[in-house]
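Tutorial sheet, problem 5. The two components below are modelled jointly, 228 residues in total.
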Amino acid sequence: GIQVEQSPPDLILQEGANSTLRCNFSDSVNNLQWFHQNPWGQLINLFYIPSGTKQNGRLSATTVATERYSLLYISSSQTTDSGVYFCAVGRMNRDDKIIFGKGTRLHILP
Amino acid sequence: GAGVSQSPSNKVTEKGKDVELRCDPISGHTALYWYRQSLGQGLEFLIYFQGNSAPDKSGLPSDRFSAERTGGSVSTLTIQRTQQEDSAVYLCASSLAISRVTGDVRQYFGPGTRLTVL
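Model answer (structure tokens):
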């Protein structure tokens, strides 16, 4: 099955800093999503981005499908950005399941 | 609109007992997924249902785990003869479609059921 690797595993930043989270995957995919899990455990869908670039406020994501990676950018970090960020991939045209990476744990200090 | 709901939110049980966890997906969503998350870990795929097709059960860790989806809507995950290693948060997600050709494949998660096996 597809392997998903996220880096870095942990990241501690000061409020206002920018960050880049990376997701590498081992096979071609046509479904890639980024999620944020808040400190209370709720998973929120941030982006559906199997290719290209999207932006939503201070967050943006880029997926380069041919090179099998995706990046999540967080600018001007706020303490509410703390939590775990997961990348999830799937090959939906083949009715394959969606597999999650182990996540990047982000801690924003006030 | 209503999101994915799960019940109970917390379940404490004794080793060896059976438990049932329920998931109500977003109305109209044809795909439903179950995942398990141990403390501080990532999400482990368990099973997914897509429309009327046979479910993909490849992630179920043992034959003590089973799941069904009735009428293409509500799903129940059953764990028989629970063990302490079954303790985790069980997460359910649904999506409108399973193929992006046919529609929105974004997953929407419920709040989870925290299972503690004593």
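Marking note: The domain at 5-96 of chain B is CATH 2.60.40.10 (Immunoglobulin-like). Full credit if you identified this.
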